[in-house]
Structures are given as C-alpha cells and as structure tokens.
Amino acid sequence: MSLNLVESFADFKDNKNINKEKLQALLEDVFRSMLKKKYGSDDNFDIIINSDRGDLEIWRNREIVEDGAVEDENTQIAYSEAIKIEEDFEVGEEVSEPIDIEKFGRRNILSLRQNLVARIMDLEKDDIYQHYSERVGEIVAGEVYQVWKREVLLLDDDGVELILPKSEQIQKDYFKKGDTIRAVVAKVEMRNNNLRVILSRTAPDFLERLFEQEVPEVMDGLITIKNIVREPGERAKVAVESYDDRIDPVGACVGMKGQRIHGIVRELHNENIDVINYTNNVSLYITRALSPAKISSITVNEEDKTADVFLSPDQVSLAIGKGGHNIRLASKLTGYQIDVYRENDDNEDVDLEEFADEIDGWILDELKAVGCDTAKSVLELSVEDLVKRTDLEEETVMEVFRILEEEFK
Questions:
Q1: CB burial of residue 267 (10 Å; 0-12, 13-18, 19+)
Q2: Residue ranges making up the domain that contains 46
Q3: What are the S1 motif domain coordinates in residue numbering (predicted)?
C-alpha cells in the first residue's frame, strides 16, 4: 500500500506538468499533518523524499533517557529500548529510527492519499488559473468535447476544460464534437473551488487579435487599432491609424484584393467589417464612420456629444443600415449620438422605400400595388381614393400622409 505511494504521485506530476519542487513540498506537508495527528507534534521528525527514485522515508528522532524516566514517548526513549537499536548508545544521545508508513494503518493511509489527490488537484487548478489569467485577451484554440444548450465545452492541448457560453457565440456559430474553435479568453473565475475559463467570440478583443494575426503591420505596431465596435455576426467597424505616412492603414488591413480581411470575415461567418482611418477631426471621423453613406453636411455639438447629419434621400438607408446596424455602430465608434435627416429640394421626390423605418412594409406594399412608388405619387391622391383602392383603413392612410408631408416641410 505504501510502496508505490510516492511513485504514483511522481507519475501524476509528469502527467499534469506540476513543478517537482511544489510536489515535494506538498507531499511533506501532507505527511507532517498525518504525523501531527498521530503523535501530537512533527518537530522531531525528518521526512526525506526522493522523487527521482520514487520513494519516501520518515525518521523519528528521540532523546535517550534513563529507564522509567520517559515522560513523552514521542520525543523520548528508554535506555533499555535504545540499546536494542544500537548497543553503544548512551543516555543523553539522540536516536533516529525509520517509521514504516504501514504502521499508520490502512484507514490513515487511504485518508492521506485522498488528501494528496485533493491538494494536488488544487495545485493544478492554481497553476491553470495563473496560466489563463495571464492570457486574458489572447486567442486560444480548443477541441469541442461536448455541446450543450447554454454552452460548449472545449479541451485545450493539455486537456484543460474551456467554456464557450451561448451568449459569447456568434449567432451563426454551429459546432459539433471534434471541431476546433478559436476564441479569446474573456475571463477566468473560481466558483465554489471550481475553475472556469470563459471564452468569447463576440468580444471586440477577438476581432482585434484576428487583425494582429492576419496583418503583420498591426502585430509590429506600425498600425494601431484605435477602437473596435461590433454587432457580432452582422457588422463591425474598426478605426485604424498609422504613424508612418508611407503606410496606408486601411489598405494594409484589407490587403491585396481583400485577402487579409477575407480570412477574418470567414472566421466571423461573413460579418461585414468596415475599416476606417481614425482622425481627431470629429466631423470627418463621423463622416467616415457612417461609410458607405455619403454625407451632404454635418453639424456637431461637442458639448452634448451629438451630431446632426444631413443626407440626400438615396443615402439615408445606407447611413442607417440594415436593422440600424450602421448608425448604431457609428455612434458607438465615435462616442457621439448621431441623428440622420433627409435633405430635399422642392422638386425632389422620395422613393417610398426610404420610409421603411417609419412605415410598415405591408403598408408600403399596398401603396405600390396601386402604382404609388414615391412620396409625391401618394400625396397626389386623396385619402378617400386610397381607402377605396387599397385594403388600408382611413386612420392608417392619414398617418401615412402625415409622415410623407413631414418630408417636404
């Protein structure tokens, strides 16, 4: 039972990549706890661990006293007992004798072994915690081991468990067992002595690390990423800056024929990535952030952090973007609340599709079905005429008129 005790933990150390010195200190500490429990004190014991040979020795040191003068059997030994060990011992000298681990009894040895396992597991957790705490914000790769409804369990090359919660997955992500996933380390936490390494594919840090991997100039510091905002799986905006006038930061990030940015887009399931030049000029920065829309004019209030942007009608939908992604991300990127306004002249008409953010699609379809494709073509008809020719109620038609008339005020 005791013969392979240390050897088995030496193997455990090799498998778990635990430092030899830490393991020896841990072994000694656990054995000393057992000695204190059995003898009341461990001060007079020497523990010798030889991890190379895989063995352990425990020696108890006791003072030789006259027969009948023993007050503490743990620290003192009678002269008659001492000379049985070695004949030329004298009173006052110290006797060292080995303690056989088997004398502790089966129950104590099993308890010791369980204690060692628990302590070594804690040591391993501490090492993993330290390792991954230093890697927060870095990309790691893991193999999918288990897929659950709320999270995916991955294993790294050392068999460490990594967690990718559903909330940190891109909406289009689909994983199955055996897949290799790349993600950024979001945080490392300890819950009720359970270690959890949390990964993320939705964090801006993940996109930034991908740029570092795909764009050497970013990795080398020649191009700086000033800010990143994302709506994962849909759209992202990245503001970049170069301190070398010879380097075009946007061109370098996109690459020849878009080859650099394409690798990142594929990783993010075709997330639309806008790379723009950073500038301290707020008006210009907002203008670039609203790309691909072309702005007619802009009024910036730096005190309130707001900006009024005026565009021709055909550019409004581009500025807002599908689902409002473009204007929301532009606001986050610049730190300004951006309001978009249509800019019209008296003779200009507006396509009904430009009102899709204010009028429901089925209403627009009803108007188009009777040949009304523009705002003025609707306003040229009367409310009564539209009610007769469509399935729209009078209140709905009047609300449509109100919205369209506002456009030309």
A1: middle
A2: 5-130
A3: 137-202
CATH of the domain at 30: 3.30.1480
290 contacts 309 by C-beta, under 8 angstroms: yes
Q: pLDDT tens across 276-324, in order?
A: 999 999 999 999 999 999 999 999 999 999 999 998 878 888 898 888 8
User: Are residue 111 and residue 9 in the same domain, yes or no?
Assistant: yes
The total number of structural domains that make up the chain: 4
Are the C-beta atoms of 404 and 378 separated by less than 8 Å?
A: yes
In contact, 236 and 206? CB cutoff 8 Å: no
Alpha-carbon span 105 to 116, nearest angstrom: 17
Is 120 found in the same domain as 139?
no
CATH number, domain containing residue 252: 3.30.300.20
pLDDT digits (tens, 9 = 90+) for 149-169: 999 999 999 889 999 999 999
Q: Lay out the sheet containing 297-301: strands in order across.
A: 297-301, 306-311, 337-342
Which one of 108, 130, 152 terminates a domain? 130
Whether residues 120 and 144 share a domain: the answer is no
pLDDT digits 0-9 by tens, 222-251: 999 999 999 999 999 999 999 888 899 999
Is 245 a member of any domain? Answer: yes
Tokens of 268: 């993010």
Tell me how long the chain is.
409
349-381: b (≥16 Cβ within 10 Å) or e: ebebbbbeeebeeebbebbeeeebebbebbbeb
